[in-house]
Write a structure and sequence with these properties.
By secondary structure, the protein is mostly helical. It is 80% helix and 0% strand.
Amino acid sequence: MGNEVQDFFKEFMQANQKAAKHIPGTLKAFMGLHESIITDGALSKKQKELVAIGIAVATHCKPCIYLHTQAAVQAGAGAKEILEAASVAVLMGGGPAFAHVQEIIRVFDALGVEY
């Protein structure tokens, strides 16, 4: 994973560690919210990560695309499922959303996911 995506994950973890020193309550509260929502419920964790990918693509959030694509893969989502979720985002978000689908491909390449 020697590329932009790998660098992002490393820098993201380092930045979170620094943020935890300055705003520990905020980070703890957000992570608690994230964990309570992303767990299996009426929707599985995998399904929730697919929804998050769609929202990330539609809102053009590159860090969100990286993080939720990785989490979706870890939750068992395949490349076709992830790209289909991204396609729904393109339907709703148009051209600007489509331009961000390439970020998912970058994560696949960095994680070694076949597509």
